[in-house]
Amino acid sequence: MPANSPPSHPQISRRTAIEVGSIGLLGFGINHLDALRAEAAAPPKHKTAKSCIFIFLSGGLSQHESFDMKPEASAEVRGEFDPISTKTPGLKISEHLPMLAQRSHLWSLCRSLTHGSNEHSMGHHIMLTGRSDIPVGFNPSRPMSTDHPSIAAITGDVIQPRTNLPPAIALPDKIVHRTGRVIPGQFAGRMGSNRDPWIIEASPFHVQSYGAFPEYAFDHQQRGGEDNRIFQTPHLKLSQGMTQGRMSNRISLLEELGKQRQVLDIAGQVESFDRYRSAAISLLNDDKVHYAMDVTHADEKTQERYGKNSFGWSLLMARRLVQTGVNLVQVNLGNNESWDTHGNLFPHLKDKLFPPTDRAVSALLDDLSESGELKDTLIVMCSEFGRTPKISQLAKVYARPGRDHWGAVQSIFLAGGGIKGGRVIGTTDKVGGFPIDRPQKPENFAATIYRALGLPKTTYWHDDIDRPHFIYDGEPIPGLT
Fold first, then answer.
1. Distance of alpha carbon 150 from alpha carbon 250, whole angstroms
2. pLDDT in tens, 326-338
3. How many domains does the chain have?
4. Per its UniProt record, what InterPro entries does this chain match (predicted)?
5. Which of 104, 196, 371, 387 could be cross-linked to 88 through a Cys-Cys bond (beta carbons 3.0 to 4.6 Å apart)?
6. What is the pTM of this model?
7. Residues 6 or more apart from 366 whose CB is under 8 A from it?
8. What range defines the domain where residue 12 resides?
């Protein structure tokens, strides 16, 4: 991937692998463990066993083709897909989400989330931070230290870790534009880069291939070309000869890490290496962590249920991480704006994007429901915005029509964490362009997550100059619980 990460985000924790042996930690930001932070006068950490899996569809899911269909509208609005009935009387969704339709008793919708941006970077910042306002110094081309902190960063900062892993993790990659620029909104911003969320980078960057590789990889503009990416699940192990006895010896461990130093982007970071040793030891010795990460070697039946592709593996990893004790897992289903369907909207949703999403999210719902964990685990799924009511055709770029960016409304999927199934909050107008009933802001969306995590309204974080900031900027979306 192009080396274009912002200087405020240390390269050792974002772009490179700290290897202990031949496989290693593959992109873990081990310098961000709460146990290693040296913060003075930090606010108290909250203990909570509640969890959230935050599914983010970068690019913008079309509400018309998914959860807010308008079959009575004119052809230029309604599109090519037909609605189908769900298990909930009166609730209909896309015909290409049949597995979710059969599980509608487990999930609900908010069809009226709205904000004011039609631009990708600002839209990402708005939805990933839960803040509608534009921060001072916002730059759509790169994250800035003045950005609002992401929901994942806040969660990771205010919750006390339950395990060797941090309370919040993002996977399988950070969101990167095809040009190589890193999208704002994913990091800690004003909290300081030492509180960036962990990002497990298991999905290699590809400049023009999108979606759930290898099975469902595609190119929006159908230019051809190969996609040979491999989903690189992090395996944590010691190299041959590194026994438990040797691990207890500080010098041996540092020597072992030193053998792999050529893979590090060491500028400005090697002097901090010594204090990371305890994090490496705890992770290498934790069988639960090994199990959570090793999804491509899960049993065949499990992989088939979730899908043997980057979407299925990512949600299986998220499910295992929550089971291990991580409180919030942000799962990016498709990097590089995979859901940005300006053209070829209908074939790419039907054949490439909806099938792996429908399967993986349904498997996640089944697992959490059958285990009894769904009641304490919120699942949310959203994009940075929706799509325009009117279908458009960019003939010079795309073979078939699509829809453009639309911040005025999008549909949000919610399940578990106290959410009652089969409910629909909010209504849009007859063309699906604007909310006409119970509009909701991103601040309400974020508050819904924080409440489901069990965080009280008095919860706050400190910025890098010790000013307190309350995490709630809105009320949880009403009518869901």
1. 35
2. 999 999 999 889 9
3. 2
4. Alkaline_phosphatase_core_sf, DUF1501
5. 104
6. 0.85
7. 103, 305
8. 1-32+237-285
